[in-house]
Amino acid sequence: MLSIVYSSAASRRFSRDDLAALLEQSRRSNAEDDLTGLLVYRDGRFLQLLEGPDAAVRQRMGVIEADDRHGAVRVLLEDEIDERRFPDWTMGFEDTDARAADIPGHRRTFDDIDSDRSTSGSLPALRALIAWFRARHDA
User: Fold this and answer.
1) Which of 3, 37, 123, 133 has the fewest CB atoms within 10 Å, measured from its CB?
2) Over the Cα atoms of the chain, what is R_g?
3) CA dist list (Å): 18 to 13, 57, 87
4) How many domains does the chain have?
5) Residue-range definition of the domain harbouring residue 58
6) What is the pLDDT of residues 85-119, one digit of tens each?
């Protein structure tokens, strides 16, 4: 199985209704394609973890890269995994605008991730965010 974490810039601001529609669509298509994961939205930026069969994850990444709602799609982390981190979630979600200071690995911007520099310094923060999200929503 494959796990990919990517970031992207929303092509426009998403309202709560826009996010709800996106989540409904994502959850439906993820269930059909045996994908699980999480989605974080903040200040017009997405951070998403997708996991599942290699071919399904790569196909979904192709769809996301072609989606005009996303720009500047950048894969931040790609791992082969033996088991899912989010086996029961077609798509967990968090809108972090209101509570960002409470989140491990919190960043005011994604500027360092979006630059052409290596993201190796960002990997611990990404892994901390994933662990925090899982623990928070499994409780």
Assistant:
1) 123
2) 14
3) 9, 23, 25
4) 1
5) 2-138
6) 888 876 766 555 554 445 444 444 455 554 444 45
